[in-house]
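Quick one: co-fold with DAU.
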Amino acid sequence: MIRSLTPQSAAADGNALAAGFNNLLVTGGCGFIGTNFIRYLLNRPDFKGRIINLDKLTYAGNPENLRDVELNLPGRYIFHRADVCDGEEIDAIFSRYGIDSVCHFAAESHVDRSIRRPEGFIQTNIVGTFRLLETCRAAENFLLFHHVSTDEVYGSLGSDGLFTEKTAYRPNSPYSASKASSDHLVRAYHKTFGLPVTISNCSNNYGPYQFPEKLIPLMILNAREGKPLPVYGDGRNVRDWLYVEDHCEAIWNIMKSGRRGETYNIGGHAEIENIDVVNTVCDLLDRMAPFPDNNPHRKLIRYVPDRPGHDRRYAIDFSKLREELKWAPRESFPTGIRKTVSWYLDNSEWVARVRSGEYQAWIDENYGRR
Ligand code: NAD
Ligand code: DAU
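Sure, here it is.
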């Protein structure tokens, strides 16, 4: 029988539930949000279990992000290279580690790549989620499948209104369509098989360890190097920016205390036009890492042809999460973006590694070619 938590009982039951997560499988833990989540959770006093991180190590996955954790907390963190589409391997991991809960991040996550080559998105995001769900439903005493999803499933907003959990799905890119499909599968496994699940749909994240193909790290690194800053279309598309650690906290709250079978929207209450994001990055770099001739970084901005099917505006109503689980973002955009720019300036070695072909060769040598 699925346990349904009322909001009133959620906080008290949260700790009891957290105590049950002894062997938590995190998929995609070597990516941007997964890395931040594992770091966040292993520092939480209310998480006493161990994390098994399953990651295929695509171009976006970097096991070096967690090398210190692997060395310092060997009993609490285990890395296992595998593909979520490989059902036999997933079954073996469940048996070997006694997996009792899953937080599912693994995905192909970049919209532009999904426009060029959608196939991998269908495989990983849809088939991979299906394979995981099949193993979870066969597992004994299974506690929770938390599915990490995106606000992009709702499509695009006009100049007003917010996405709520009741907004109809209208995905516009192969990426968002594949995530929408995976959300439906997760919900269906709850309704049909009684699998304990929660789903979160979050807005744009930014912060440390984000692969430099996404807007904010791309702009920081290009600007630093004096390269053009490509702004799509008129630059007035709006995203609702959330600092990644706030996303991690929201996910953990939902895992502990969210009602099973429910969806929660997560957002930053920080709607900003792309051009303003890019201007902010440029102005911060003018102060934190000025060019020798003091030329403003804004001079590098170039308007380029728009992304096909480009969603105009995303904005999240997260009142359900705020009211039921008392979550709100801690970081504002001005504080979060300053921390983020600092992180990229301080971690030029990480940047150089993830951009180099040498890094991919190292992955193949250490973990075997896939
Ligand atoms: P990312 O691209 O940085 O990381 C994805 C990780 O998944 C990588 O480590 C990659 O190696 C791994 N992976 C990919 N295919 C795999 C497979 N077949 N098997 C196992 N591992 C595989 O992505 P991210 O930005 O950290 O996003 C994580 C999740 O959060 C995704 O599900 C994404 O849809 C969702 N999300 C992201 C954002 C955002 O702004 N980045 C916002 C809302 C939701
Ligand atoms: O909303 C959540 C989603 O946010 C996540 O589900 C996705 O995984 C994540 O990649 C992100 O999707 P976006 O497409 O919004 O992020 P991206 O960083 O690619 O682009 C942000 C905005 O900036 C978007 O309007 C497109 C624009 N852009 C992007 C790039 C890379 C540019 O103008 N120039 C660029 O070079």
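If it helps, The chain has 14 helices and 13 strands.
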